[in-house]
């Protein structure tokens, strides 16, 4: 129940910040948060992270990207359910799931994802993206820690 609340809360936070960004940053406005480092500017993402598909000259419709996100979410849910993960690993899965849901809902409702957090020399992103990256990084750290502990036990 706690993990479900975490997912719902993160998806809510993601969408609340996107609505706020769309309201405050329309018409090309931007807000400097840390001069020279961080600003808020509204962009629409019709691609996946880092515009990877466009770089490959691929331009799938929003429904294809949404289907992929839903499939990834189903896979994360299935793996989490089958493995009976530790609480920390379950939190990592919940972060990934929340981010996937946040961006998938955007694609289903609008055909695009709203991005607004801009670090200089980095693509613009959103709260859902932060959740996915944090979840994946946590899974990698936990997996590496588990592998070392297993190797040391033998």
Sequence-ordered SSE layout with sheet pairings:
Elements: H1 2-24, E1 30-34, E2 38-45, H2 52-55, H3 62-83, H4 87-110, E3 113-119, H5 127-153
Antiparallel strand pairs: 1-2, 2-3
Helix pairs in contact: 1-4, 3-4, 4-5
Approximately how much helix is present in the residues? 55-70%
The tally of helices reads 5
Provide the structure class. Answer: alpha+beta
How would a textbook summarize the main sheet? Answer: 3 strands, antiparallel
Stretches with pLDDT under 50, minimum 5 residues: none
How large is the share of residues in beta strands? 5-15%
Q: Roughly what is the average pLDDT, rounded to an integer?
A: 86
SSE pattern, N- to C-terminal: HEEHHHEH
Rg over CA atoms = 17 Å
Widest sheet, order of strands: 1-2-3
The count of DSSP E runs of length 2 or more, i.e. the number of strands, is 3
Distance between the termini: 36 Å
How many structural domains does the protein architecture include?
1
Choose one word for the global shape.
Answer: globular
Q: Could you characterize what this model shows?
A:
This protein is an alpha+beta fold and 154 residues long. The chain has one domain. The protein is built from 5 helices and 3 strands; from the N terminus they run H-E-E-H-H-H-E-H. A 3-stranded antiparallel sheet has the order 1-2-3. It is globular and about 45 Å long.
List its salient traits.
154 residues; alpha+beta; three-stranded antiparallel beta sheet; 5 helices; 65% helix
Give a quick summary of the entry.
This protein has 154 residues and is an alpha+beta fold. Helix content is 65%, strand content 13%. The protein has one domain.
